């Protein structure tokens, strides 16, 4: 079936599948007790369920020092991203933190232009900026206690997103197998899980969270959290990095719509609707550029 699609169509299929998985685990995380530390359980679940499969296929690729270095950069940046996200989640709701943490595409566009000579038109840049504005407004539509540390950790997560996105782009030019990319994600997630575990040992009462997600939520979240990421790397083989990262934020948009329609999330509804409009408009401009 994939063979009948063009490279561009395949890349968009990967983005759509990733968005569906991404919004699924993101909604699950919103409705899990904070004491369960969903990120810790989700990363562990990916390692246990898909780690062996991915690492086996990753071992079959043609290795080089540059590839090993790029995977190391991705793993390190993933660790710092999840630690930053964990710190921000401890201080504010997921619905506030995550949209702002995902406002990294403008940084990605700058790095990609510098490192990969990926040129985006001014219209595309405008689309990215409009969608990022929508993400910021969306985050601020959530009731929370203002805390400068929240913004600091959230911006740190956005910065580290831009770093691993760029190394992922370079990896995508050397690894074409989806199975092997699952292995790349596994290395990054194992590094991040170790970081979260060390954090819990130093700052929490127990290393293993006292609460845990429902078994079904844990299973689905574990399967989706890494698979969605690998699909995004796969799409980077064809499309510009900032384009892919921006379009992956369609998941946040879909999560908002689902929350309003099915979970009666009507708080600051007008601001949510304005944010949604800006994100849609920005991504539509980007897609048409």
Architecture blueprint of SSEs:
Blueprint: H1 7-30, H2 38-58, H3 65-89, H4 94-101, H5 105-116, H6 122-139, H7 148-172, H8 178-203, H9 215-235, H10 241-248, H11 250-262, H12 269-288
Helix pairs in contact: 1-9, 1-11, 2-8, 2-9, 3-7, 3-8, 4-6, 4-7, 5-7, 5-10, 6-12, 8-9, 11-12
Model description:
The protein has 289 residues and is an all-alpha fold. The chain has one domain (7-288). Helix content is 76%, strand content 0%. The protein has 12 helices and no strands. It has helices at 7-30, 38-58, 65-89, 94-101, 105-116, 122-139, 148-172, 178-203, 215-235, 241-248, 250-262, 269-288. The relative contact order is 0.21.
Question: What features would you highlight for this structure?
Answer:
76% helix, 289 residues
How would you briefly describe this protein structure?
This protein is an all-alpha fold.
What is the number of domains? Answer: 1
Helix/strand class: mainly alpha
* Alpha plus pi helix count: 12
Low-confidence stretches: none
- The share of residues in extended strands comes to under 5%
The major beta sheet can be summarized as: none
* Mean pLDDT value: 84
The whole-angstrom Rg is: 18 Å
Question: Secondary-structure element order, as H and E?
Answer: HHHHHHHHHHHH
Question: How much helix is in the residues?
Answer: over 70%
């Amino acid at each position: 079936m994939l063979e009948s699609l063009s490279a561009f169509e395949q890349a968009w299929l990967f983005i759509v599948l990733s968005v569906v998985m991404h919004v699924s685990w993101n909604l699950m995380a919103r409705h899990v007790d904070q004491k369960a530390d969903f990120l810790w359980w989700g990363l562990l679940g990916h390692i246990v369920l898909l780690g062996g499969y991915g690492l086996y296929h990753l071992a079959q690729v043609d290795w080089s020092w540059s590839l090993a270095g790029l995977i190391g950069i991705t793993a390190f940046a993933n660790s710092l991203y999840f630690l930053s996200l964990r710190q921000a989640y401890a201080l504010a709701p997921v619905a506030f933190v995550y949209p702002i943490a995902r406002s990294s595409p403008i940084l990605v566009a700058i790095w990609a232009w510098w490192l990969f000579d990926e040129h985006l038109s001014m219209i595309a840049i405008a689309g990215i900026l409009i969608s990022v504005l929508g993400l910021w407004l969306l985050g601020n539509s959530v009731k929370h206690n203002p805390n400068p540390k929240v913004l600091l950790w959230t911006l740190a997560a956005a910065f580290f997103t831009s770093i691993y996105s760029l190394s992922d782009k370079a990896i995508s030019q050397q690894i074409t197998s989806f199975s092997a990319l699952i292995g790349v994600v596994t290395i990054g997630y194992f590094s991040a899980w170790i970081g979260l575990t060390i954090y819990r040992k130093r700052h929490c009462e127990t290393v293993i969270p006292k609460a845990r997600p429902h078994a079904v939520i844990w299973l689905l979240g574990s399967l989706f959290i890494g698979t969605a990421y690998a699909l995004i790397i796969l799409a980077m083989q064809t499309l510009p990095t900032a384009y892919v990262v921006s379009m992956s934020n369609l998941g946040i948009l879909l999560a908002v719509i689902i929350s309003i329609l099915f979970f009666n999330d009507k708080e600051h509804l007008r601001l949510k609707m304005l944010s949604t409009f800006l994100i849609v408009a920005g991504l539509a401009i980007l897609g048409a550029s």
